[in-house]
Amino acid sequence: MNRVIRMGLVLLSIFIISGCGEASQEKVTADMEKTINELTSYQTKATMEMLTGETTQHYEIDLAYQAGDYYRVLMHNQEDEEGSQIILKNDDGVFVLTPALDKSFRFQSDWPSNTSQPYLYHSLVSDVLNDNQAEFTVTDQYYVFKTQTNYQHNQSLPTQEIYFDQKTLTPYLVKIYDSDHNVVVEVTFEPFELGVEFEADFFEVDANLTSSLFSLPVSALEGQFEKADFPISYPTIVHGSELVDTSEFDLEDGRRVVLSYQGEKDFTIVQEVNTTAMVAVREPELSSGAPVHIGNTIGAATDQSLMWSEQGVDFYLASEQLTQSEMLEVAQSMAIQMEK
After folding, report:
1. Residue 27: Cβ-neighbour burial (10 angstroms; 0-12, 13-18, 19+)
2. Same domain, 72 and 130
3. 127 and 255, same structural domain?
4. Looking at the structure, do residues 315 and 252 belong to the same domain, yes or no?
5. Which of 54, 155, 245, 276 has the maximal Cβ count within 10 Å?
6. Radius of gyration of the chain (CA)
């Protein structure tokens, strides 16, 4: 009996020793939570590919964070002649800036904590910590988590895989899947620079709007005036409705088109160009929505509306019957048509 007991103790010791080097999900998540809570600042770059219908949008992203809930997310789409957009968060609120056009929106939003953000370190860790059913695997270099997402405006992207570097616990790769397990969004990060010291105005609206890094040449801005004669864009996804009326109005400094759809779910789309506002610095327009990606651009989403600008045209979609996901599908289908 003593021999059996001794053998059992030896085997138990071998098991414990062999398991000491293996990372457990509980240990990794605890280390990630500690790391993110102690983080003072970081800066990194990333590339993001978003599959929209039959097209893929390619974004180059410059990310910066500073403790105190300061964020600057600079996004550039090479297919968009208006250049970069910036999501900015500081003590004054959440802003979306289009520096080349001197346009800015301020949101009454708790972004980025209110929804998943595939390019933000804190958001990815939060998704891991908040999912009790998260799946965990280990590769040679990465800890991989498969979790549920929290996209309030797009319920068709339910799951994601997040690859964290084993040494730094910073994200390397994010894959977001649709309900058929197809990859729809993919984000790849460069190495993170931690403990960065930023200029005093780095997260300020005016400094980012007026930076020469983002401005278009005067010739490009002058070309915007010609867009008062913009071609009308129509959605290809209409959720059982049909176009019943098209109204056009000449404005003092531009043109407005109103499309009315009726059927299973009624909605209205307004398209407008205001030429004088496009070259004048304005106070940020207030929106009660939250930032959301639509085609090449970042717009504002509320429960019953979407607002965005693309190729010099301002769009507004409103409906009391479409869900947020359905409104986004309608808007995305218009963006695809504009790119053809």
Report:
1. exposed
2. yes
3. no
4. yes
5. 155
6. 24
Domain span at residue 250 reads: 217-339
184: which 2 tokens? 């729809």
Query: What stretches in the chain show pLDDT beneath 70?
Result: 1-22, 52-54, 78-83, 211-228, 274-288, 335-340
Decide if 254 contacts 272 (C-beta within 8 A): yes
- Angstrom distances, CA of residue 188 to CA of 160, 164, 172: 13, 11, 6
Determine contact, residues 193/124, Cβ cutoff 8 Å. Answer: no
Output the domain CATH number for residue 284.
3.30.200
Looking at the structure, tell me whether residues 175 and 225 fall in a common domain. Answer: no
Task: Count Cα neighbours of 161 within 13 Å in the Cβ-side half-sphere.
Answer: 17
3-state secondary structure of 48: strand
Q: Is 271 domain-assigned?
A: yes
**Longest CA span, the chain:** 99
Burial 33-52 (b: 16+ CB within 10 A, else e): eebbeebebbbbebebebeb
pTM score: 0.81
At 80, which amino acid appears?
D
pLDDT at position 121, please? Answer: 97
**Cβ atoms of 307 and 294 closer than 8 Å:** no
Q: Which amino acid is at 278?
A: M
Q: What is the pLDDT of residues 144-174, one digit of tens each?
A: 999 999 887 777 889 999 999 999 999 999 9
Residues 302 and 228 in one domain: yes
Q: How many CA atoms lie within 13 A of 164 on its CB side?
A: 28
> Does 47 lie in the same domain as 176?
yes
109 lies in the same domain as 148: yes
Report residue 294: phi and psi, to 5°.
-135, 110
Total structural domains within the chain = 2
